[in-house]
Design brief:
Blueprint (H helix, E strand, L loop, with lengths): L3 E6 L3 E8 L2 E8 L26 H23 L4 E6 L3 H11 L6 E6 L5 H13 L1
Parallel strand pairs: 1-4, 4-5
Antiparallel strand pairs: 1-2, 2-3
Length: about 130
């Protein structure tokens, strides 16, 4: 039996379920990506130059994108050897991961992408098992 992978993903975390001949394995990966970067200093306002304490929007977006790319690469490292990959989740992260898989020439292994609400770990594992049971 070849390895099959299913994962629930958003911008904060991913739950990866690997189904192998030797059993099932579940891994949680956190992104540590921050969309709203914090100000420098200890108080919200420090004089007339408060706006200089927050990175510019373009800089913030570049940092966030770099953090997400590192996160997606970490997820891909866990599913790279899977013959079939199912991706589901609530937002854009599933499509961004699929694009990243395409960049790594692994997109032909993706058997589906689905929109799914927030799920518990047992629900995620059950969905992956059910998908690959047939």
């Amino acid at each position: 039996m070849s390895t099959k992978a299913g994962l629930w993903i958003d911008h904060q975390k991913a739950f990866v379920v690997l189904i192998k001949a030797t059993g099932e394995e579940m891994i949680q990966i956190s992104s540590n990506a921050e969309k709203q970067l914090r100000r420098t200093g200890s108080t919200p306002l420090q004089g007339n130059f408060e706006s200089q304490q927050v990175p510019a929007d373009g800089s913030r977006q570049r940092i966030f994108t770099a953090q997400l790319n590192a996160y997606y690469d970490e997820v891909i490292a866990f599913i790279r050897d899977a013959e079939s990959i199912l991706i589901f989740g609530p937002g854009e992260a599933k499509n961004q991961l699929k694009d990243r898989l395409e960049d790594n020439r692994l997109d032909e292994r993706v058997v589906g992408t689905e929109t799914a609400d927030i799920m518990t770990e047992p629900q995620i594992a059950a969905k992956v098992r059910q998908h690959f049971a047939g």
